[in-house]
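If your schedule permits, I should be very grateful for your opinion on a structural question. Please examine both parts with care and let me know of anything in them that strikes you as inconsistent. The record follows directly beneath this note:
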Amino acid sequence: MAAFDGGSGLVRLVRNHERGAGAPFSPAAAVYDPLAGGGTTTLLFDSHKGDLLSAAPSISGTIRNCAGGLTPWGTWLTCEETFDHTGPSGRPHGYIFEVPADGLGDPTPLRDMGRYSHEAVAVDPVTGYVYETEDAGNSSGFYRFVPSVPGDLAAGGRLFMLKVAGINQANLTGVIANGTTYDVEWKEIASPDNAAASGVASNFVWAQGRAQGAATFARLEGAW
């Protein structure tokens, strides 16, 4: 979840619901899959009085919204921690969706940001680059999304996977001492999305980067 300044002492909190199959709970305009029960709700607090003023659904029809991250332009990126070939209704899952702090989210997946088991994101406020973590066992990558238009993720962009410079297919799944640093390179993912209903390996994004020597991690979680 993330908190946003609503002005005049008000705070908006956009929070995930990590749920699987089920009934969508948001208005139809913010539903991605009619048989998926995950999504987000937005709460409005008066921080001066300590009162909850409202709570409303802001996107739904998604699956296992585990983490995400806030953006410098006042939105929450909610991430599906899943790779479902078809979804409960035949729709593919494993995407990132954008939710404004003060309204309904767009149920259109941000496909250029990749289809895989997402965890968290962190946005560089200077470049607009979005760094993404993957939670898929020992086949997890660390990614950088370079938007075509900084601040407009729906306009698309290019996805890259981290490679340790000078080390081909570095294995970073074990114990690494705190403070360890590496020089890195970024390998472009040619096909970040595949919406096919079947025949797609769940780690197809990771495998593209791995084939170029990118590093692998174990279940990456938060990012900031």
